[in-house]
UniProtKB/TrEMBL annotation:
Region entry Disordered, spans: 115-136
A Pfam family hit: Gp80
Family matches, as InterPro entries: Gp80-like (IPR056908)
Record protein name field: Uncharacterized protein
Biased composition (Low complexity): 121-136
Length: 136
């Protein structure tokens, strides 16, 4: 899972300078139509999918229940993430996911390509990510 500049700086400061990285109270998963880069761009637009929102990875539970413990430099989502049905007029193609500190803004922490590479979601379809879909 490639770290964002925000996460990389927090990790470097934590290990090299002893500055404790503060864990976010919640983590949210977003869908992107292209590589979000370090700025978190290309998130699904409300104009294309009006009901779309980022999802709480822990689904209201303790933040640590949203992802598995890291092993082998990787972890995965621990819960199924079910997005609201796509209520736009045209298909939306998802190529990446990202993990954020806030449901609307905040800092992007990590990004990962979709395991299906280019996942097209037609109108009136729901999109879900079973456990282990977000992996790196």
């Amino acid at each position: 899972m490639p770290a964002s500049t925000y996460a990389a700086n927090a990790i470097l400061n934590h290990f090299l300078r002893g500055v404790i990285a503060v864990s976010p109270a919640r983590l949210y998963v977003s869908l992107h139509t292209a590589d979000p880069g370090n700025a978190g761009t290309s998130e699904v637009a409300a104009a294309a999918w009006p009901a779309y929102t980022r999802l709480d990875a822990a689904q209201g539970g303790a933040v640590e229940t949203g992802f598995t413990a890291a092993a082998g430099k990787a972890c995965t989502n621990a819960k199924e993430l079910l997005y609201a049905p796509h209520d736009g007029a045209a298909p939306v193609t998802v190529t990446h996911f990202a993990i954020w500190t806030d449901p609307l803004g905040g800092e992007m922490v990590f990004k990962v390509p979709s395991p299906r590479r280019r996942h097209s979601i037609p109108p009136m379809s729901a999109s879900s990510m079973p456990p282990t879909s977000i992996s790196r």
